[in-house]
Design goal:
Elements lengths: L1 E2 H10 L3 H16 L3 E2 L20 E2 L12 H28 L5 H27 L9 E2 L1 H8 L4 H12 L1 H16 L3 H32 L3 H12 L11 H6 L4 H8 L4
Parallel strand pairs: 1-2, 3-4
Helix pairs in contact: 1-2, 1-3, 2-4, 3-4, 4-8, 5-6, 6-8, 6-9, 7-8
Length: 267
């Protein structure tokens, strides 16, 4: 029987993209068939040992070239950026289940399913890029997402707050308006792709909310106050700026109080 943590280690510590995608889909199939062991045999390796492909070149957000969505080059750059986000999301989901041991079985099932869906998203975007004569790695990408993972590698609550309940939740805020833009220019392929990703991301953020509240309850912490503290500690600038998609965030497990705090620019 294969072991989930052995597969996670292979995905996180080998840079080959196709191998990573194949292993992720195989792991999900094994889990579905009840053929994947969740026994933790060895502790996780340090997050500093995680390996990434040599391309794309990773830049800080400030170093990234500015391109507008209204031009063909801007559309290519946009989908390359989305490809990078989805590719990093595979790492983030695997690292979530790899790094934090001793959780209920459902935690590992949930984040493996997330990893598998992120891999599906990445593959769909790869095909979309190919239709524009572009490949993942042809353009630079930003490195901010993994910085958040590194910052929270010792704290599961902080990881849940920062990745699914902050960075991934931003997709719920901005993607609907981008879908509308592609509808206006009649790009149905892009609309379909972004709609599929948005639908799945609501579920990913919801799993983040569920497990955040679960761990808070385990530790005797009040979730809304703890969320505020962690965002203020780990998010550069104190907290993300709106507008926020209240409807989707409520579906994804945010409370009205959390959204009121996010929207209150005086705090």
């Amino acid at each position: 029987m294969k072991n989930i943590f052995t597969l996670a280690e292979a995905c996180l510590h080998h840079p080959d993209i196709e191998q990573k995608l194949t292993l992720t889909h195989q792991a999900q199939q094994l889990m579905t068939e009840g053929l994947l062991s969740l026994e933790s045999l060895t502790p996780p390796l340090a997050i500093s040992t995680v390996q990434f492909p040599s391309a794309p070149i990773l830049l800080s957000t400030r170093e990234m070239p500015k391109r507008k969505l209204g031009s063909p080059d801007g559309i290519k750059a946009f989908f390359h950026a989305i490809a990078h986000v989805e590719f990093m999301a595979i790492y983030l989901a695997w690292d979530m289940l790899y790094r934090f041991r001793g959780m209920p079985e459902q935690f590992y099932k949930d984040w493996l399913r997330v990893a598998d869906e992120e891999a599906q998203h990445f593959e769909l975007i790869q095909l979309h890029l190919q239709s524009m004569s572009l490949a993942y790695g042809d353009l630079p990408a930003h490195k901010g997402l993994w910085d958040h993972a590194t910052d929270t590698s010792e704290d599961l609550l902080a990881r849940l707050a920062m990745i699914p309940r902050c960075m991934e939740a931003r997709g719920l805020d901005v993607t609907p308006a981008i879908i509308v833009k592609f509808k206006h220019i009649g790009d149905e392929a892009s609309v379909s792709l972004l709609t599929r990703i948005l639908t799945d991301e609501v579920g990913h953020v919801e799993r983040g909310s569920y497990w955040f509240k679960f761990v808070c309850e385990q530790q005797g912490l009040e979730p809304e106050g703890q969320y505020q503290q962690l965002i203020k500690k780990y998010y550069l600038g104190g907290k993300p700026k709106g507008p926020f998609n209240r409807e989707m965030r409520i579906i994804a497990g945010f409370s009205d109080a959390e959204l009121d705090w996010l929207e209150n620019t005086s705090l």
